[in-house]
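User: What would this chain look like folded?
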Amino acid sequence: MNTPTIPGAVALRRLALLGVLLGLVVIVMGAWVRLTDAGLGCPDWPTCYGHVTPDAAARVPGQIESYDPGWSFDSGKAWREMIHRYAATSLGFVIVLITAITLAYRRERPLAPSFAIALLVIVLLQGALGAFTVWWLVKPLVVVLHLIGGLTTVGMLSWTWLTLRRSTGVVQPAPGATRTPALDGARRAAVIATVIVAFQIMLGGWTSSNYAAVSCPDLPTCQNQWWPKDMDFSEAFVLWRGLDINYTGGVLEHPARVAIHFTHRLGAIIATLAVFWAALLTLRSAPTTLVRRAALWPLAALGLQLSIAIAMILEAFPLSLAAGHNGGAALLLLSLLLLNRRLREA
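Assistant: Here's the prediction, encoded as structure tokens.
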């Protein structure tokens, strides 16, 4: 027997899927912009030298020079930054539609209005963080917060899409979650793995925004040592260093960058063990094939992410792999959300 479709649920589910795809594009493009030092390709926000496109600004005599006589205009960097902004704006528009539809059908409740409003607030905060990223000259703390906001947005859109599978009749309602010690243990492990991976992604953002990725060019050692002696943890994780500092290219000395990179590697080991443990418990206790399959997705995403990380080091950090590493992190997080959702429904 098919479940009646709640009004508005089909449109919301499609918009949520579109939002997830757009969000992944924005995250990878954001990494591309940062890694090519294009984060300050436009010195203002939301325009670029006061115009919608860099070319429009370049056609006005004296327009670029009026912002800063010493500012070096690079059309390629400016376009990369603006294309990223266009994509982020499109994602914001999708979320506005989701919120509007949710409020229009608030009596039928295809989606909790509070959830939709929270999603809208987060994307508005994302816009503000995008502005501060430019105004505060790509300060690492703001860059990491911007990454967290982007992943939170994509995660909430993914959760929306998964939740609306029942509202649209794609899957039948479960009679209730199965309560067994083994399955409850798998649920706890999945939540813990998700939290650990989220922290690891934040640490990866800190590594990238401080230009510490190339500080350990060898593998499996770092600086040809299992525990590098030349590490400065006291400077590595200082969150606030004041304003009016241009962080393009990084401002930390080499020992601090090594400490950041090495910590990220240690975090990767912990995250790998957590994901394996959650997947193993799920495979051992899952009552259905659907749930067991969900446990395979984090393992596949983890394998992809580790392969990209290893290839990055072996190939001397090519830009395509470095940007893909961000996308891989997002896919790993989404796969863990899928696992959590399936375990809740089991």
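The CA atoms of residues 82 and 140 lie 20 Å apart. If you want, I can go into more detail on any region.
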